[in-house]
Amino acid sequence: MQFSGGINKDNSNTNSLETSDFGDNTNNNSQKDYNIKANDSSVEGENKVENIGVAVFKYDKLVGELTALETMAFLSIRNKVDRFLVSIPDPLDDNKYLDIYITPKNSTNVQIDTSNSSPYIKINCNFTAQIYSMTDNSEYLSSEILDIISNSCNKYLESMFLDYLYKSSKNLKSDINGFGIFASKNFLTTNDFENYDWPECYKNAFFDVNIDTSVKSAMLISET
Fold first, then answer.
1. Short-list 28, 45, 148, 165, CA closest to 99
2. Helix (H) or strand (E) holding 125
3. Residue 209 forms beta bridges with which residues?
4. End-to-end Cα spacing for the chain
5. CA–CA–CA angle 40, 46, 49 (5° rounding)
6. Cβ contact 184:117 at 8 Å
7. Greater model confidence, 182 or 90
8. What span, in angstroms and rounded, lies between the C-alpha atoms of 155 and 211?
């Protein structure tokens, strides 16, 4: 049995994750927040409690902790987050980042091939998004530029998800996302699934992540 626990200063019901310096759209160091863990951050949830970090357990043993960025991936795959904010490299300026507010469009689709002892896990996620902060440049509002930003966002999130997933299997060796539930559907009986030894096989898992993000508009800037 594998499970996880959130790390908060107080109990929280908020399902949003905000990890960027919202007020500074020229902040090139915003990515630094994504490597922090619980109790290391000044970021707070909507009801004034810290909302970053997940403790990872395998059986009753603590095996590790997720950073803010890994927590976003974890909650997204489990369909447990309403929205989250990420800073992606600006595709039009290598020296800047864009804060993108992302909202899941539908539930994550998970498909698992258990034909051998190295399960192949394919994940598809669809998001809608808005630019949260940016420079005063109207070209970001064109459909062509929004498509470029959408593609950049897709690549960023795919890399983020893959890094997290391989950490869970190779480093933590714990199926904290509960993929075993999907894998069990490939077996006729409970005994067949138990004989497959999912916890052991998960350590050898391969992942394929496909992200489809549609950046619709900017939240703070509109054409006049």
1. 28
2. strand 120-133
3. 123
4. 56
5. 40
6. no
7. 182
8. 8
Q: Which two tokens stand for residue 32?
A: 């630094």
Cα 135 to chain centroid distance, Å, stands at 26
Are 70 and 165 in contact by the 8 Å Cβ rule? The answer is no
Q: Of the candidates 107, 96, 87, 77, which has an alpha carbon nearest to the alpha carbon of residue 18?
A: 87
Strands 61-66 and 83-90: unpaired
Q: Which residue has the tokens 């559907």?
A: 185
Phi, psi of 141 (to 5 degrees): -85, -10
Whole-angstrom distance, CA of residue 113 vs CA of residue 142: 41
> Residue 126 pairs with which residues in a beta bridge?
212
State both tokens at 173: 């060796």
Domains of the chain, earliest start first = 2-218 (3.30.300.210)
For residue 61, what pLDDT is reported?
Answer: 73
Q: How far apart are CA 59 and CA 203, in angstroms?
A: 15
Q: Give the span between the Cα atoms of 113 and 67, in whole angstroms.
A: 29
At 11-55, the pLDDT tens digits run 333 333 433 333 333 344 444 444 434 444 433 334 333 445 677
> Is residue 56 very low, low, confident or very high in pLDDT (cuts 50, 70, 90)?
confident
Residue that is written with structure tokens 């489990």 in the block: 78
Phi and psi dihedrals of 47, rounded to 5?
A: -105, 30
Mean pLDDT of the chain: 78
Cα–Cα dist 215/102, whole Å? 8
Residue 110 contacts residue 123 (beta carbons within 8 Å): yes
